[in-house]
Design the sequence.
């Protein structure tokens, strides 16, 4: 299979789903891994699929944490966070794709009572409340995107869905405010953060955000103006990982809360 052209392999294994377990430090929690997350989701060991995301869940999610996972996709971060937060925590997984919502709900039903409850919220998160066009990638659904954004890895558009979009600040009027806000929205991260200004000013969650190169400057400015310290999430979270500009995987911590970072020596 490794020698087949990628597009042939993607077509052959499209819609495959396998039941796997996360590493022991996440309670060996069950997860349904789907080719919707790319071929690696079904062929790589779970701990190799997105090791950075798993490490951040391990480092940043504490017992009792409330976590919002915006752009949950197949649920790797949600399930890992649920295991780390434990029964007293709460995880809210935001995902607009109806196919992935079904998968996430099945995964949520597999979790043990020792994990936090996974609540699946089938909406897109954006700057405002309203209807949006959401493009389904022809390749892995991990590359789905709001119509104004996206990247070159989609392989084209398989279909467009009309979805409800809600801002973070509006969601905060209905849901418990998060201790940690994870954002992975294929280029729409600046818009999501623009709709989260009250959240950043008042609730002050830690933010884990995938940042595209074209948004790095604007995201950096928004977060630093909100008095956040930026770390490169791909490195151990210490003084050496502090950045002035947003990294591809950015961890943003309120300046008054850097001591919440495990192992950090930042004053």
Sequence:
């Amino acid at each position: 299979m490794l020698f087949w052209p990628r597009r042939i392999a993607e077509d052959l294994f499209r819609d495959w789903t396998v039941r796997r377990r996360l590493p022991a430090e996440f309670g060996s929690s069950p997860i349904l891994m789907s080719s919707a997350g790319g071929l690696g989701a079904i062929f790589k060991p779970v701990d190799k699929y997105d090791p950075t995301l798993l490490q951040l869940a391990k480092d940043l999610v504490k017992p009792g944490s409330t976590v919002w996972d915006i752009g949950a996709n197949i649920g790797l971060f949600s399930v890992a966070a649920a295991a780390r937060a434990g029964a007293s925590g709460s995880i809210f997984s935001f995902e607009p794709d109806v196919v992935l919502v079904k998968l996430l709900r099945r995964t949520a039903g597999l979790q043990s009572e020792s994990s936090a409850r996974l609540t699946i919220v089938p909406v897109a998160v954006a700057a405002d409340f309203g209807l949006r066009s959401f493009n389904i990638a022809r390749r892995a659904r991990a590359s789905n995107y709001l119509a104004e954004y996206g990247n070159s890895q989609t392989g084209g558009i398989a279909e467009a869905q009309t979805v409800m979009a809600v801002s973070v600040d509006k969601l905060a009027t209905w849901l418990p405010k998060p201790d940690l806000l994870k954002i992975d929205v294929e280029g729409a991260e600046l818009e999501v953060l623009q709709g989260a200004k009250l959240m950043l000013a008042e609730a002050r969650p830690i933010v884990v955000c995938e940042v595209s190169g074209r948004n790095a400057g604007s995201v950096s400015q928004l977060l630093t103006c909100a008095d956040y310290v930026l770390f490169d999430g791909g490195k151990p979270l210490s003084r050496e990982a502090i950045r002035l500009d947003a990294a591809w995987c950015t961890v943003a911590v309120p300046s008054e809360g850097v001591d919440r970072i495990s192992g950090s020596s930042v004053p």
